[in-house]
Amino acid sequence: MVHINHLILSAVLPVIAAQETILGVYIFHRHGDRSTKSYPPTHLTDLGYAEVFQSGSFYRSRYVDSNASNPIFGISSDLVKGSQLSVQSPTDDVLQNSASGFLQGLYPPVGATLGSETVANGSTVQSPLGGYQLIPVSVLAPTSAVSQPGDAVWLEGTTGCENAVISSNNYFLSQDFQNLTSKTASFYQSILPVVNNTFTTATDIYKNAYASKLLLRVLSLFNIRLTSIVWDLVQVSLIHNTTIQSSELLTPSNILQLQTLSDHHEFNLAYNASDPVRAIDGAVLAAQVVQALNATIAGKSTPSINVQLGEYANFLAFFGLAQLPAASVNFTGINNFASSMVFELVTNSTVNNTTYPSTDDISVRFLFANGTAGQAPLNSYPLFGQSQIELPWSNFVSEMDKFAIGSQDAWCSTCGAGSTACNTTTSATTGSSSSSPTAHSGGGISRAVDGVIGAMVTLAVILALVAALMLVGGFRLVRKGTGTANNGGVVGTTGKA
What start and end residues bound the annotated signal peptide (predicted)? Predict the structure, then answer.
């Protein structure tokens, strides 16, 4: 019996010694369900609030709770420690409120016992709202770049990026776009009865459509918005409306086709393998991830949790750059509300208050949940077209550096001197998290002229489609602000958020 117990103990010891430890995480999160942008101010819906709260609760059960399934080393399980969290969001109400909702799930109210303190006169002060925990969210104004790597971060790499605008416009000149426009014309005309009674003018239809920010910046003077018009209207309606006009047209196959075409359209606006500047959003995000995780390692798991809120375009651009479509074709589609991708720092080395692993003993694991984590499964996927789920830290950084943009100089070199906050004296900076993908080549034409040509050709395509819709739907074009929307029927949304 003693001999048998010795064998059992010998078999268990290696497992205990090799137990994995999470050193820190970076979570990039999409906002929850929101109201239409046609009737500002846009707000996070109750459904969206519930989605991000549930996601935060899931990550609490995974990383933070005292009984967490994958606890982060040294994390405070009940009372939040500001030094252990870094949370950032752009200046957008939906994204900021989503961040707050997520944090409420991650660190819920602690109750009267923990949520109180005794002051000098001996009296006890109770924290309001049952020990509700106040967690700051760094608000980031949309900006194109930073003065030095690490000084700040930005979440919208395309903002003011001249070459990214040109590259995105080039999709509308591609054979793929032309072919799909021709092949799907009759299909979209057949679906028009679902939406053509909701709005009184063509302007209102485009005002409420899903639209690429890159295209909107070029065409904003014309107040024309066009991408995935019908799918956005249908998608929001299917979530919030109990009745939909001409709903008999929304068969499962038609809904699938609308979604598939929208996915293809938006992915091609966000990423192109031969012109990586189009995915500047993903390049900036990659630098943020490396910089944040590097800070976690340098601070010995402080901060432990990095959270940033962003839009689906950021996801799509990063998916393309990181070659995630090689792992699953689903990475070429628009991710659902409250989706999240996670980068975990993991080690099998000993970790305690006096011993912390070197970078040689640290790996990175990528995970993604397409929708509210806990409801949608959080699965791990290999990055960069490789087969390994976990990559050594040095390999991970090396692969990310191939496309990451982590400094103003690198951003300006990639985006062009005419981009926001750039000038002709700006030069590229290379190195960790600051290398730049190949910039779009104008083929001998100046970028300003190239941009105008792309804009005008795109405008011509869109005006042709507008004319077709006016002919088919009986619409008339009016000046901006003169049209009024019918309050009934399908509700639409705009923007890439």
Answer: 1-18
Distances (CA, A) of 177 to 185, 260, 406, 465: 12, 14, 32, 13
Phi, then psi, of 23 in degrees rounded to 5 = -90, -25
Could you check whether the bond before residue 252 is cis, i.e. omega within 30 degrees of 0?
Answer: no
Mean per-residue pLDDT of the chain: 76
Instruction: Name the token pair of 133.
Output: 């925990």
The answer to whether 86 touches 99, Cβ cutoff 8 Å, is: no
The residues, any chain, with a CB within 8 Å of residue 232's CB and separated by 6 or more, are 208, 209, 210, 262, 492, 493, 494
Question: What is the distance between the alpha carbons of residues 28 and 49, in angstroms, rounded to a whole number?
Answer: 17
Given the structure tokens 């062009």, which residue do they identify? 416
pLDDT tens track for 10-69? 344 343 334 899 999 999 999 999 876 545 677 899 999 999 999 999 999 999 999 999
Residue 55 token pair: 């996601």
Cα distances (angstroms) measured from residue 467 to each of 146, 476, 483: 43, 9, 18
Integer Cα distance of 312 and 246 in angstroms: 29
Task: For 10-22, give one letter per residue: b (16+ CB within 10 A) or e.
Answer: eeeeeeeeeeebb
In angstroms, the CA 410 to CA 425 distance is 12
Q: What is the Cα–Cα distance from 218 to 117, expressed in whole angstroms?
A: 55
CB 206 within 8 A of CB 226: yes
Q: Chain centroid to CA 91: how far? A: 15
Which of 35-44, 149-158, 394-403 has the least mean pLDDT?
149-158
Residue 415, both tokens = 């985006």
Pairing of strands 340-347, 362-369: antiparallel
3-state helix, strand, coil in the chain (%, to 5): 45, 10, 40
Q: Is domain 19-111+127-161+276-401 given the CATH code 1.10.8.60 in the classification?
A: no
- According to DSSP, the residues that pair with 90 across neighbouring strands are 140
Q: For the whole model, what pTM was predicted?
A: 0.78
Amino acid at the residue 198 = T
Amino acid at position 476, single letter: R
In this structure, are residues 267 and 40 in contact, taking their beta carbons and an 8 Å threshold?
A: no
For 295-319, b where at least 16 C-beta lie within 10 A, e where not — what string? ebbeeebebbbbbbbbbbbbbbbbb
Cα 447 to Cα 325: distance, rounded to the nearest angstrom: 31
Domain residue ranges in the chain: 19-111+127-161+276-401, 163-274+445-473
